[in-house]
Amino acid sequence: YNNRDVWTTLAVLSMVTNKISLGTGVTNPYTRNAAITASSIASINELSGGRAILGIGPGDKATFEKMGIDWDKPLTRVKESVQAIRAFLAREQVNQAGFKGAQMAFATSKIPIYIGAQGPKMLELAGAIADGVLINASHPEDFKFAVPMIRQGAEKAGRKPEDVQVCAYASFSTDKDPAKAINASKIVVAFIVAGSPENVLERHGIGMNEAKTISEAIAKYDFKAAMAAVTTKMTEAFSVSGAPADCRARVDELLGTGVTQIVVGSPIGPNKESAIKLIGKQVIGKQGDLKIKRALYIGRFQPYHLGHQAVLEKIVKDAEEIVIVIGSAQESHTSENPFTGGERMEMIYAALDESDLRERCVVTPLQDIKRNSVWVSHLQSMVPRFDAVYSNNPLVCLLYTSPSPRDLSTSRMPSSA
After folding, report:
1. Is 268 helix (H, G, I), strand (E, B) or coil?
2. Cβ proximity of 326 and 300 under 8 Å
3. Which of 142, 140, 129 has its CA nearest to residue 54?
4. Burial status of residue 66 (CB atoms within 10 A of its CB: 0-12, 13-18, 19 or more)
5. What does pTM read for this prediction?
6. For 64-75, what is each residue's pLDDT tens digit?
7. Closest CA to 110 of 50, 165, 161, 57
8. What does the alpha-carbon distance between residue 226 and residue 219 come to, in Å, rounded to a whole number?
């Protein structure tokens, strides 16, 4: 009840997104029956076209106390719930965890189940039965402790440890001004400190009295005092915060401990929209790692279609910036070239906006001079310097030999594209 309803939010996100995975981070077996959880995540999976992930954990004891819910046998409750949910999703009759022959009435595709874990027993359980583990941590030391526990649980269950995804569910906050980013992280860090067990606090050199001060402030809803009690040591231990370069350095440290996935958790940054763009470009999808600075993508795009878009999405994995060149831009209103250069530009920009690639791409028209011998120099005179050429047109690949063009004929674009 501390946040907006997760299932309503996921349903809306299912309808307005196309690619991202959608999941709970995390639900629990106390406030929601396993049968209802299975039905809900299966519904999200159906709405999203198979993009759902179920995150489930033991929940927060302090929150349950306020809600009047007994936090009994968390390890057993999580284990039984995961087993029951898997059976429900497989449309099996469920006769465990208190169920008496219950069965879900509709089918769904396989949905990964990740367990939120922190203590050694829950980490082992996750390694034994889950597809992945969501660890609410942001510091390499926590994963040096957690990863061996997960592997041990997997091996005891006869599983390969590498089959279990290890996810750093990190409290993320980034901004060009590192001080603003760190300050924005403090409210989330305060809650993490207040809810962390003593052994975790000791690992990071944080005293129980410091944590108690924050916990008491939160209990009184005095969030200003709670934030004021958050120290530099706490933000370093329980957040990935600072300038994009600082956050990227921490991500690299986490990956070096055995982490396989990074979950960008709240608060994200002082300005969420700006922070999401910074994280996408400079932290998670760091453009400096790309081999090609600027690439050309050449075609007539009559019209621009899903095949072209699929190829573009391959190119962005190689190049920081893409110049999309519309060939034969002067041609229109014929059976071979029905659309004008301007109309084709509008189509491409609409697709770029929908896929959030506009900031990485520039679209430019190029008139066809009908002379192959000078076409390359003509092209070079009309576009900025570039490092690679992508085209599905065999003639373009033949004419352009330096830099070497990349033949994308396997993309199933028609050769006249």
Report:
1. strand
2. yes
3. 129
4. exposed
5. 0.70
6. 888 899 989 999
7. 50
8. 10
